[in-house]
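seq:
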Amino acid sequence: MMIMKMLGKIALAALYVSYLFASAAFADDDMFKLFRARAWKAMDAATAKTPRDFSLMANALRLQNRLGEAVAVLEKHSASFPSEIRPYADMTELLCREKLGMDTLALATRLDGDAALPSGLRYPAAYARLRALERSPASVDIEPALNRMLDVADTDANRLTALARLVKLADSPRRGAYALALLRIRPEDKTARALAAELAVPPKSTEWREVAYYKAQALRAKKRYSEALNLWGAVALSGNGPAERAVRRIASLASTPVRQDAVNALRLVAERRRGKVQARAMLSLMELVGEDEAKKLEEKLIKAYPDHPDVTNILWKSGWAAWTANHAPRAASLWRTARAPGISAAWDTKLLYWLAKASQSMKKQDDADALRAELLAKHPLSIYAFLLRPGRPKIADGHDPTLSSEAPLLERWGFVSYAAMGLRRPEATARELYRSMLLYEWLGNGDTTYSLARTLSRRLTVPALYRAGLERLYPRPRPFAKQVAAACAKQGVKESLVWAVMRQESSFRSGAVSHAGASGLMQLMPGTAKDEAKRLGMAKYRIFDPSDNIAMGVSHLAHLSRSFALPEQVMAAYNAGPVNARKWLAQSGELPLDRWIEAIGFRETRHYVQSVSGNVETYRALYGD
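struct:
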């Protein structure tokens, strides 16, 4: 099930459509007004007069799945459309014909062969031609068509579509090359990994590192550790690409009979390499060598790579040890070093908060006030901002006016999906991405709406908070709203907590599966799902079914809430299990909330509790409890 078909097509259109088109040219055009409001019956009754009217009518018919009627309008009127519009009309006609089971090979071939075809249509045209060839009764070699798709693909998702097919062409001499290209995008692909493992490692070629890396994986699986180490060592010592991953793999061999050889290989990499590869080798060595050598490595790391995420963690932990030992100046010095350029927002927020605490402890009030002001300005929806701020943040109604923009040409002619895609280009401005987000929402594509909101998250929270943007960044997906409300009412759990957990756990994807095997919207482990189903009296359940998953997830939150006093403790238990949460509580004793969060024993769980806590407070600020 596609997540977030959540934004319902007609009801939600009224929430934002006035903004979406308010500044657009042709805003007084009656047909366009009807189209943007999805007033299909009114459009049926209206009289089309201009080429743009007919284009809007054809697109309206297509959106209603009245494909034959859409084709008829386009066949009759698309020749009168402007030259820059006509290719989109042709592609729309092709897709309608395809769904109707009509022959599309001639039209697809013409479009795919058009050198002047807009860039946004090149991949769709190539893919349409492939599909037309596959429907042809004649036997056709599809490898050239797939390679054409690969050549014009402009996203990794599109490249994957082509490569996943190409690696299955058993008779292709290029199958190994396709496997390597696929692994660069999807390293976990089993078919591609198996193919790469079969390849001979070619000397002095641009692809030998990838071949060697995956060949070594196959050797390790066969317990041929020395051979795997030799290959990973060669990869780690040369070039980029998989070099850093090879270092991690070398470190994994420390648990095998070649431990000392692996440690020596890491020492060699740490000595010869620079940048991320060297940093990774040094970090891996720190876990495998004696205390004195580890300390020297740590000092070198801090000096050379202060902005590396793992170095940030080292500095944080050292600063925290100083802080808990009441050495505020030492803690502040280490935390200032940790705030190197390029650190993540999560780290920056935490460091600002505790630096302010340290400054306050040292009676540097001006510094403390400045740090708190910076935190509130840069990270207003973090848990640390909510801990600092009295009351809830100020959220303005409506859309951020600085993100408003005029409708592009394709949108005005009704080709909304192509307009939305065109506005997502890599160099797009925040305004273009914002409009694209709203267009995807209008189209009912909640997946992409939320994805774009996440892309824009920094712009939607700084310098000001506007409700319309935040409601897309912190949504309550319509398809799940009734189930959440019903389960929360039954179990006595706050809806804000459920939405916050769902946002963090699965990004509202009902088919989500974690590397550990947690599944569904609420990311339930199989054992947890079984226990909660029994508690709920569910004889049968489907873990990916939204209703079942939400019911079990909310039941689990309710069960944990009966064992733990604070929501943050419940979150820790939800992520790491109640046994670990109880252990941390026993070890930490009675602590203020901010210090208790830092006392959580797992780094991942600390981050989880910080993130979900911020989510909870933001949902409360937006929607209430």
